């Protein structure tokens, strides 16, 4: 009797689909949508990383120029 309850409950828990033939098509559509979403997120993160790297490069260039200017003015000024 207990095995009949398990079988009946598993039948009730099954998610109904339109037809069994359309299940692979629905699964494929869901997977395609997931892949597109992941691809868009990856592209967004990649562009953010490249933007931050460009900003770091610009800031490092400015720092390098400032340091060069400071060392050149120290060399020109007379020492005590």
TrEMBL record:
Bias-annotated ranges (Polar residues): 63-80
Pfam families named among the record's database cross-references: HSBP1
Biased composition annotated in UniProt, kind: Low complexity: 1-15
Single GO term (MF): transcription corepressor activity
Region of interest: Disordered: 1-20, 61-80
Signal peptide from the UniProt entry: none
GO BP, sorted A to Z: cellular heat acclimation
GO CC terms in record: cytosol; nucleus
Family named by the database record: Belongs to the HSBP1 family.
Identification of the protein by name: Heat shock factor binding protein 1
């Amino acid at each position: 009797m207990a095995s009949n309850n398990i079988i009946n409950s598993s039948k009730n828990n099954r998610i109904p689909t339109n037809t069994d033939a359309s299940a692979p098509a629905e699964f494929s559509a869901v997977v395609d949508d997931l892949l597109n979403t992941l691809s868009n997120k990856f592209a967004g993160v990649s562009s953010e990383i490249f933007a931050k790297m460009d900003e770091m490069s610009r800031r490092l260039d400015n720092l390098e120029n400032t340091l060069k200017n400071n060392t050149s003015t120290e060399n020109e000024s007379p020492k005590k």
